[in-house]
Amino acid sequence: MTAPVKGPASYFPSIEKKYGRPIAEWQELIRTSPLTRHMELVNWLKTEHGLGHGHANALVAHTLAEGT
Question: What pTM was computed for the model?
Answer without folding.
Answer: 0.88
